[in-house]
Amino acid sequence: MAKGNNSAYKKMLDKQYKELMQRCQVHLEQIEKDLPEPKEDLHELLKDRGFSRRDFMKWTSAMTAALMLPPVFRPMVAKAAENFSRLPVVWLHFAECTGCSEAFLRSSYPNVDDILLETISLEYHETLMAASGYQAEENLEKAVHDFAGKFICVIEGALPRGLHGQYLTLGPKGKTGVQVAQEVTSKAAAVICIGSCSAFGNIPAAKPNPTDCVGISEAIGVKTINIAGCPPNAVNFTGTVLHYLLFGDVPPLDSLGRPLWAYGKRIHDFCERRPHYDAGEFVEEWGDAGAIKGWCLYKVGCKGPYTFANCSKARFNEGISWPVMAGHGCMGCTEPGFWDTMAPLEKPISDQTIGGGEKTVDRIGVVLTGAAVAGVAAHAGATAIVRKARNKDDRMNAEEEKHD
Amino acid sequence: MTKRIIVDPITRIEGHLRIEVEVDNSNVIKDAWSSITLWRGFETILKGRDPRDAGLIVQRFCGVCTFVHYEASILACEDAFGVKPPPNARIIRNLINASLFLVDHVMHFYHLHGLDWVDVVSALSADPKKAVDMAKAYCPNPYNCSATHYKAVQDRITKFVKSGRLGPFANAYWGNPSYKLPPEANLIILSHYLDALAISKIGAQMMAIFGGKNPHPQSLVVGGVTSVMDALEAERLGQYLFRLKEMKNFVETAYIPDVLLAATYYKGEGLSGIGAGVKNYLAYGGFPLDDDWNNLLFPRGIVKGGDLSKPLKVDETKITEEATHSWYRDEEPQHPYKGTTEPKYTGYDKEGHLKGNEKYSWCKAPRYDGIPYEVGPLARFIVGYAQGYKPMKELVDSTLKATGLPATVLFSTLGRTAARALEAKLVGDNAEAWVNELIANVKKGDTRTWTRCDVPRKPAQGRGMTDPPRGALGHWINIEKGVIANYQAVVPSTWNCSPRDKKGVRGPYEESLIGTKLAKVDQPLEIIRTIHSFDPCMACAVHIIDPQTNEIKQFKVA
To answer: How far is it, in rounded angstroms, from Cα A235 to Cα A227?
Structure first.
């Protein structure tokens, strides 16, 4: 690229960032005006837990990069973190298993996160709140009233529509889940779906979907930010809330409502076992010599090639492991309908959908990846991946012809 | 003149539970109904799928009881496939299970149950120095105990109160006369409430070391486990042991002393048997110490009518479920292998109350030999105690001696809560030996983590019975043409949350509330304290019914 063009490009970038930064500053000021004082002093709390100022700076750098922002935004990310406890959160439970709440409570990546989540101001959360019954319902009504237009509504669980919504009733008045969702989300500043149930329906919506369960967006027609996963990594939630505190709006999303910064890349592309896939070294059955050596899990059903999420980078529970590291393979839990589209879970998809045995695993993997990617075409760079896949496929066809 | 009180939602539990009670003029509970208000229909979803996928699906019954349904399903499949996992796999499953017990019991006592015993607002008026002395009376080296730290906890909560945004602590029953602890005791346990948030993360990591993640680990397969690299890696075992030590330390220097501290002030209620319930106890047994499940850490058996002198054996054929008062069409008692029912939702009455004489819950009524049974840590300890099982009897006897209380105190809400704490200690004390067992086995050259097996082509059936944190759990599967033809689970919270049966006999939650006096009729503190002592888990309890009545299958019980 010519020097002149380069500087024009730089100028354009500078202009964009300047605008973004202004927006961010305006929003941060707005937050200080609109939202109540922070409930917790984050720095006191960090100090109490033995985190230094430097640890916090390191964390803000990592988080700034994770959110795909340039380093100049670091002080603002720090400010947003300090503002975390200002943001009122109403957390609703519908057709769910509470696994997402548990994941949220046990978040520990990357260190500062868990403390940040402790400071979050849960105005309503059934698993944690002391009040029950009428007093619980009062808390909900009060939060929705006092913070109308300002609170974030976090939803865990899908909504059953069958039986006029009565497969799920809530509260002393026996309202259906759908009613409660409509009432609360209509007053919320934003709706974050935590987990694949509220995002896409997930397990209760698996075939034959006996209660006609669907995700929140589909059930009540509101726009939602979908933190997919069963359960998702809590860092994906933290980052999304931080983004909201920074800019007052949702981060860039893919066509399925998932934040691109966390769900923009394929598990397969950042998998620690990827070199073995490329080398054609596969675990053939559980516990075999390949399993002991950490070879690729594709043939025992890993769905990493079809799954968009950051598990291979973020891992779980303070990065101690993730399913592929534990030798099991990914089951595609961040993708809609995965219990049906990825099943049987211990077999490659090709076994089922493409007759005539395994062919070459690599080739089939590429073909299917192409298809999966085409389905989520709004992903950043998705077209590029499709093109790459096609090219690779063409190359392979050419190879085969040569052999013929 | 009776008055109806509705508590919905019961918070600090998994899932959606409604309790209604009738109190007389002196606020004593005369009748009670427990109702589950969500139905998801898992069994229908399971039909026609590869049986090997069932474990990961049924694990989503519940994210709090994560792992337990995964394991029970895998055990049911192994029974049906006719395969026995190698010793390493059994040990790794025990290690994952141990981490669950430690996290789950700690989280239950502090985050789900603690605020029924502890008055947060009262803690603010405590003298931190006196609190230190009090803590030391129950443990020589109490967890995170210093006047400075206790003061910091007070400051943090005071800030919440001043901001007017109490968050999870808002609008609760602070100041209710049923709170019996002095301010210093409230402060000690409240400080551990906050510590436990951090400590449960460590236990979750223990699970992730061999399970891949928590919640919802992903390393079990029919015939074994997949985390062979972790099992063979010395560093991983070290990571596990290091965290085990931290968890055990918390159990011994916070959890157990806090329960003893609470017992000092609540013993009156324990002695008068508040919350005792049906007094029938059922345990399936768990934590296999050999590959044939002959030798178990948790014993298997029954105690009926609170009679500790006559422990009985479990006969699986006597387990039934019925739906006279449940929102399903079929009402007759059926063994789980046959139990399939079509939803028949009849809703609430005109005043918005449960129709207590008709159908009123998505929960079915499990019965053993026709009567209701309580399951869970208390059931396990009562069965173990009655059988004279040494590890449990010693723990109970030493605790009774320390508190100067008789064994009858076990039959109460307090007893239920104390048994859970003792169980956390029992599991923690045994887990280290299992790591050593794994090392010894690998040293011998045995690196097997999986036994080769395949889905049976011929019709097959199997059951997995185990005893996870909330109590006796059974999964029943039958396989035809290589796919799931029928699947049933009778889970702990179904036993405990059971509605009435055909004969009108109440379930354990309902029965445990009868005779309890409410200090304030508009504050259901005593109700939620007793209900929470069972560690309710509603998501588990209501996925188990199959709406396809036309597909009733009959099987012999294995």
So the answer is: 10
pTM here? 0.89
CA–CA gap between residue B240 and residue B231 (Å, rounded): 11
Q: Judge contact between B261 and B139, C-beta under 8 A.
A: no
A98·B120 Cβ contact <8 A: no
Q: What is the ipTM of this complex?
A: 0.89
Task: For residues B361 and B497, give the distance between their C-alpha atoms in angstroms, rounded to a whole number.
Answer: 10
| Domain ranges across chain B | 3-551
| Shortest CA distance from A173: residue in chain B | B352
Nearest CA in chain B to A103: B215
Q: Which residue of B has its CA nearest to A127?
A: B12
Q: Determine which one of B20, B34, B52, B65 is catalytic.
A: B65
CB of A8 within 8 Å of a chain B CB? The answer is: no
- At residue B430, φ and ψ (nearest 5 deg) are -95, -20
pLDDT digit string, tens, across residues A94-140: 988 888 988 887 765 545 666 676 677 888 888 777 788 888 888 99
Contact B123, B154 (CB under 8 A): yes
A3-262 CATH fold = Rossmann fold (3.40.50)
Q: Give me the residue from A39, A208, A322 closest to B163, CB to CB.
A: A39
The residue extents of the domains of chain A are 3-262, 265-403
What residues of chain B lie within 8 A of the CB of A101, using their CB? 63
Per-residue confidence (pLDDT) for residue B89, from 0 to 100: 98
Interior/surface letters B50-69, b for 16+ CB within 10 angstroms, e for the rest: bbbbbbbbbbbbbbbbbbbb
Query: Following CA atoms B317, B319, B320, B321 in sequence, which dihedral angle do they give, to the nearest 10 degrees?
Result: -150
Catalytic residue, from B191, B493, B498, B512: name it: B493
Distance between start and end Cα atoms, chain B: 51
pLDDT tier for residue B260 given thresholds of 50, 70 and 90: very high
Contact A132 B61 (CB under 8 A): no
Tell me, yes or no, if B77 is annotated catalytic: no
> What is the identity of the amino acid at A302?
C
Q: B84 near B291, Cβ under 8 Å? A: yes
B69 is a catalytic site residue: yes
What are B137-172's pLDDT values in tens digits?
Answer: 999 999 999 999 999 999 988 887 777 777 778 878
Task: Find how far residue B474's CA is from the centre of its chain.
Answer: 14
The CATH superfamily assigned to B3-551 is Cytochrome-c3 Hydrogenase, chain B (1.10.645.10)
- Tell me phi and psi for residue B121, to 5 degrees: -65, -35
Instruction: Based on the residue annotation, tell me whether B470 is a catalytic residue of this protein.
Output: yes
* Residue A381 pLDDT: 31
Instruction: Find the helix or strand (DSSP H, E) in which B196 lies.
Output: helix B183-211
**Catalytic residue list contains B252:** no
Q: Is A128 on the interface with B (CB under 8 A)?
A: yes
Q: Strand ranges (DSSP E) for A173-229?
A: 175-176, 190-194, 213-214, 225-227
Secondary element (H or E) of residue A395: helix A382-403
Residue tagged 């009849």 (tokens): B346
Q: Which of B529, B527, B530, B542 is nearest to B492 (CA)?
A: B542
Contact A287 B448 (CB under 8 A): yes
For the domain with range A265-403, which CATH number is right: 3.30.43.10, 3.40.50.300, 3.20.190.10, 4.10.480.10?
4.10.480.10
Closest CA to B382 of B419, B427, B417, B421: B419
Contacts of A326 in chain B (CB under 8 A): 210-213, 217-219, 226-227, 230
* Smallest Cα distance from A206 to chain B, Å: 6
> Of the residues B18, B69, B532, B543, which is catalytic?
B69
Active site residue B363: no
Q: Which of B50, B167, B227 sits opposite A344 (nearest CB)?
A: B50
3-state secondary structure of A92: strand
